Predict the structure.
Amino acid sequence: MPTVVTRFLAFLLVLVSCLCAGNEAVAHHILGRPAYALNENSNTPPSMQLETVIGDYFVNYMVFPAFPRPKEPGRIHLYAKRIDNQNPLQEKVAFKVRDNSWAAWLGFGANEETLGIQRPDDNVYRQGFVFSKEGDYIVTAEFHAEGAPYIIDFPLRIGAPPPVGPLGITAVLILGILVTVSLIQRRRAMTGMIRATRDDAQKGQS
């Protein structure tokens, strides 16, 4: 049994190592250089538009351009208004970003970095960015309103999506577990058969 468990742990270690290597587990800075906004006249569609409700506020979030790439400028637009009276948010909003890769979840990625602190421009918060590497990130918008803190997380993909997504990785993990359990059960069955054969042989000799 210890041998099977050791093999299973080794399998998971190799799998995690591969995932970390694919996400560049070496710690790095997320941002490529000081962020700045795209020209507001640029006719680029957003890559995503998300709407959510948090506390007393309705929040709309957009990312430009349609497909943000490493070392190229992009921008975030955030709009928030109260649900009860429709008044737009006028407080300062801090934008932060952190790595959302497997390596970061395992403690090997970059720490959280600050994109900037913005005031509303025509009721819209505009935050520029330039990322040094492609990958999956989480952008956090933080503000205080009526004495209450608000923290909102949004996903952000820089560069082309990976060929194997989270569902594929999960499927590989489940498959590995099933194969390991099957091997353990087969080994137990073979051990039981060998013991039964020995017992029958000993009974026959006696």
Q: What stands out?
A: Residues 85 and 125 are 20 Å apart (CA to CA). The chain has two domains: 28-158, 165-205. Residues 166-205 form the longest helix (40 residues).
